[in-house]
Amino acid sequence: MNDLTKTKSVLAVLSGERRDPPPAWLMRQAGRYLPEYREVRSTAKNFIEFCLTPDKATEVTLQPIRRFGFDAAILFADILLVPMALGRKVWFVAGEGPKLDPLTPGDIDAMQVGDVEGLLGNIGETVSRVSAALPGNTTLIGFAGSPWTVATYMIEGGGSKDRMKARALAWSEPERFDRLMDLLADATIRYLVIQARAGAEVLKLFDSWAEGMPEPLFERAVLKPTAKIVGGVRAAGVTQPMIGFARGCGAMLPRYAAETGVTAVALDQGVDPVWADAVLPAGMPVQGQLDPAVLRAGGPALDAEVKRNISAWAKRPHIFNLGHGVTPDVPIAHVEQLLATLRQD
Ligand code: CP3
What we know:
Layout: H1 3-7, H2 9-14, H3 35-41, H4 47-51, H5 54-68, E1 72-74, H6 81-85, E2 90-93, E3 97-100, H7 105-110, H8 116-119, H9 121-133, E4 139-145, H10 147-156, H11 164-172, H12 174-198, E5 202-207, H13 215-235, E6 242-246, H14 253-259, E7 264-266, H15 273-279, E8 286-290, H16 292-297, H17 299-312, E9 318-322, H18 332-344
Helix pairs in contact: 3-5, 5-9, 9-12, 10-11, 10-12, 11-12, 12-13, 17-18
The structure holds coproporphyrinogen III.
């Protein structure tokens, strides 16, 4: 055990130790369910500008730590900053979510990884400021989207129900699709290296749309690009633990855990813990996997599910989290209840 794993429970778990109760943070812990977030958000012209303004992004990263004392802070930013750095237009429409100018085949052919350090340098500044301001026992997590999930937004022009255009492009134009995965992986490596050098202590890759793919597509869209990113980040001398979140990957989980090089896997609520424990590499830490809907619901169901989650992972290094993000309609009292239940066990 080194000094940092002694004081930082999230780093201890990622190095293979168990903690009882497990350390906890929540995906989307900074966001619209917090009045103090809404207040800062209302001062920004648009969401991208908000993410790229270090004093605002630092403040909203720290808000959930001050209010709830989570064991980790996650950098406030967005996975769609990487397409922006690749020259795509990205904007957010209230009530509808992200919009991007849809990619044409010619756009993919012409795309270059440009000045990632220049365009996303402000994110490094936010990481340094958060790092300096955090309590000594709180771990700072940096992140990026994985190429497949980011590409779905680029190809579809925003969120979509079934990612049909993106999946069809992968089958119909394999070379173009693989080029897009490579460009995104290269840009993402550089983006994560900026964050690691600025003080991020853990790096997380969000593959939020890893569901519903047959194995050959999963290999090209998820396994290969993720392994390339982990390898590229390591080749740059970054040793921080990496958490991979292939949401909805189902039966592909064992290959994701074994072949990508990630240190730990984040699990969504649909993964059966008994099955996952049997198929994951011995000792690999897991993060998750409370249903966000039970946090929304509160009451006795929330207490019961928190306890079930803790006992389901009683034998593995475990970081408590949701299976996906906190939704804007979650009452603050439910987050307080979750933490009280977790910490009294
Ligand atoms: O607290 C945190 O988790 C850190 C910040 C964070 C945001 N986005 C802030 C945000 C993180 C880690 C993300 C990741 C992200 N962004 C993902 C992967 C995780 C997931 O949820 O699956 C994805 C798919 C995106 C893309 C994205 N950004 C969408 C689909 C939306 C709109 C959804 C919505 O809730 O409106 C965003 C906008 C966004 N990113 C918001 C926040 C707090 C809400 C925008 C606002 O405040 O106006």
